[in-house]
Amino acid sequence: MLKELFAEAIIGRDAEEFVQSDIGQYIIGCAEQESQEAMDQLKHVYPWRKRKITELQNKIWRAESLQTWIAELIIKGKQATQQLESED
Predict the structure, then answer these.
(1) How far apart are CA 52 and CA 84, in angstroms?
(2) What does the alpha-carbon distance between residue 25 and residue 2 come to, in Å, rounded to a whole number?
(3) CA-CA distance, 23 to 18, in Å (whole number)?
(4) Distance (Å, rounded) from C-alpha 20 to C-alpha 56?
(5) Which of 19, 47, 72, 73 supports an S-S bond with 24, CB 3.0-4.6 Å?
(6) Mean pLDDT for the chain overall
(7) Could you give the CA distance from residue 1 to residue 8 in angstroms, rounded to a whole number?
(8) For range 13-41, the mean pLDDT
(9) Nearest-CA neighbor of 64 among 40, 33, 20?
(10) pTM score, two decimals?
């Protein structure tokens, strides 16, 4: 259990550092931009263009998922750190 908590704490810290880095900011910015562009396009797609709708929905899902996964790593890392500190 302690081993897992340490691993989660380290990965969470690494995720935070990644988000704060230039590369992390760039990738998150790209994900946000891709999601927004796909959402804008989705607003104007004819309803019978099912393949295009699916393509745009997948772009939005991918971009939002990236951000969610990183956020979850950070949250789990903070929770693990708090548990480790409370056990001391």
Answers:
(1) 48
(2) 31
(3) 7
(4) 28
(5) 19
(6) 95
(7) 11
(8) 96
(9) 33
(10) 0.81
pLDDT of res. 1: 82
**Which residue blocks in 1-88 are alpha helix, DSSP H?**
2-20, 22-42, 50-87
Q: Residue 64, Cα to own-chain centre: how many angstroms? A: 6
Two tokens at 88?
Answer: 């001391």
pLDDT higher than 90, residue 82: yes
Q: Where does residue 32 rank: exposed (0-12), middle (13-18), buried (19+ CB within 10 A)? A: middle
Tokens of 83: 């548990």
Distances (CA, A) of 84 to 12, 13, 68: 13, 14, 24
Mark residue 46 as left, alpha or beta (left: phi above 0; alpha: psi -120 to 50; beta: remaining). beta
**Average pLDDT value for residue range 11-40:** 96
